[in-house]
């Protein structure tokens, strides 16, 4: 994002909203379970309606992409992230989860760091 710690944790500038408001647990392989649908049904619409000033949405992970992109969502996280330019006019940028588990994904998709990250950093800077 190109922001420092103080900027990131300034709740007047950056809002982080999980897809679930609880930890849904892990599957037998140790991966996080998907967020319970009741969370988005119960809270997301109301929270976004209460914050109409939000203009830039970083859709981190496939679950967030599926909810925010709706019918425009592709069949995979990679497909969504690769189509980032299509979503940019609506203020939505699909991203992989920033986890050590995604190091392989980053190596397979060097365009992410070369093409998308510079635009992401500029968008964030412009909004802040």
Main β sheet profile: 2 strands, parallel
Please, how many helices?
7
Q: Which spans of ≥5 residues are poorly predicted at pLDDT below 50?
A: none
- For the termini, the CA-CA separation is 11 Å
State the total count of DSSP E strands.
Answer: 2
Strand content: 5-15%
Q: Overall mean pLDDT score?
A: 92
Radius of gyration: 15 Å
Order of SSEs: HHEHHHEHH
Helix content: 40-55%
Structural class: mainly alpha
Gross morphology is: globular
Strand order of the largest sheet: 1-2
Give a written overview of the molecule:
Helices cover 46% and strands 6% of the residues. The protein is built from seven helices and two strands, in the order ααβαααβαα. It has helices at 5-8, 37-50, 62-69, 77-82, 84-87, 103-108, 111-127, and strands at 57-60, 92-95. It has a two-stranded parallel ribbon with strand order 1-2. It starts with a helix and ends with a helix.
SSE topology sketch:
Elements: H1 5-8, H2 37-50, E1 57-60, H3 62-69, H4 77-82, H5 84-87, E2 92-95, H6 103-108, H7 111-127
Entry summary:
This protein is mostly helical. It has seven helices and two strands.
Core attributes:
two-stranded parallel ribbon; 46% helix; 2 strands
